[in-house]
Write a structure and sequence with these properties.
Order of helices and strands: EHEEHEEEHE
Shape: globular
Strand content: 15-25%
Number of strands: 7
Oligomer: single chain
Largest sheet: 5 strands, parallel
Number of helices: 3
CATH superfamily: DsrEFH-like
Strand order of the largest sheet: 6-3-2-1-7
Helix content: 10-25%
Length: about 140
């Protein structure tokens, strides 16, 4: 019997205007540093956190979106984006950052971290989690 708990971090808020997105990213990195089994989910306006080429100069806020590219270095490779949330906002996976991780078992081949799943598949992922954090 495995004692490893599955931690799901659900991101529902836009990246700027509140502290939720930044705090979620910090908590994920800390959990991953302690070798938690980390899964990230992006739904609703949370998908905006992964948009590529963000420019925060007009907001007078630091752009923390490049930090997502470090997730693979922390062995965070399960990143799920809800298909319906993308479609409802007129977006596709091509609008998101390209996040990867290196597979040691395949001579460090780069593999995509982001997977687009349906709302029903996301519900299954939620149900399969032992601990959920909502941001």
């Amino acid at each position: 019997m495995s004692t490893t708990k599955k931690f799901m971090y659900v991101n529902r808020k836009a990246p700027y205007g509140t502290i939720y997105a930044w705090e979620a990213l910090e908590v994920v990195l800390i959990g991953a540093a302690f070798e938690q089994d980390v899964t990230l989910a992006f739904v609703d306006d949370g998908i905006y956190q992964l948009i590529g080429g963000q420019d925060t100069s007009g907001l007078e806020m630091k752009n923390f979106s490049p930090t997502y590219s470090a997730l693979g270095d922390y062995d965070v490779k399960k990143i799920y984006v809800e298909k319906e949330s993308l479609e409802e906002r007129g977006l596709s996976i091509d609008d998101l950052q390209h996040l990867t991780w290196e597979d040691e078992d395949e001579d460090y081949a780069e593999k995509d971290s982001i997977q687009v799943v349906t709302r029903a598949e996301m519900a299954d992922l939620f149900a399969d989690s032992d601990v959920m954090f909502n941001f």
